[in-house]
Amino acid sequence: MELLRCIAVLVTLVAVMGHPDPTLDQHWQLWKKAHGKEYRHQTSEDVAALLTGLRIPYGHNQTSTYRRRGGAPDAMDWREKGCVTEVKNQGACGACWAFSAVGALEAQLKLKTGKLVSLSAQNLVDCSMMYGNKGCGGGFMTRAFQYIIDNNGIDSEESYPYMAQNGTCHYNVSTRAATCSKYVELPYADEAALKDAVANVGPVSVAIDATQPTFFLYRSGVYDDPRCTQEVNHGVLVVGYGTLNEKDFWLVKNR
Predict the structure, then answer these.
(1) DSSP H/E element including 126
(2) Which positions fall inside the Peptidase C1A papain C-terminal domain (predicted)?
(3) What are the structural domains, with CATH classification, of the chain?
(4) Catalytic residue at 96?
């Protein structure tokens, strides 16, 4: 099996509603009603903490070794190239970091082998705690990549399905679906480097601020909330970029 590269970046995406919605409280109550009784008595802050889960390593001071290729097109969408698996349901488990990591590797697997395979986020939830991840209590994408490298593989979603809860590690090398030889971090908050990487390498793991209620109420269009901060708490996957109505955007897979 060929070793695959993964690429990760810690960026802040200031991304969706030009001005606060005066009916936001009403929309939030409708969201909770639509998404089940487990959220009924929770605030937007409670739900954000439950449905995100990024844990940036203490003292994380990355030195980027990424070399830009250049020649990025005006728009890119890796879904059109068959490199993006279906959106998953994270459930009440802070495993965003795991879904972000497997998404980047899934694309590299497709580019190397021609096969699009959903990889196991649960494998990372259960087995990478020695690397500083906390399972459903949160984690970080680079720690997930390092586990896959040292473990010499990761299971598929089919062989190690997602349970939305912490479990006992039962990785099985006989059902290994992918490997990873290295990962590369991009310069912090460098959107030009991010565009270059997305265009020339593939989908990229990133971190965003998902604390605003508008993030959970998003349905379509370009998400752009001016209250977005540089305090990131959620791992997602950038699968493309483009421009809509003269507004540049990042195309993001959320889980």
Answers:
(1) helix 121-127
(2) 72-255
(3) 5-253 (3.90.70.10)
(4) yes
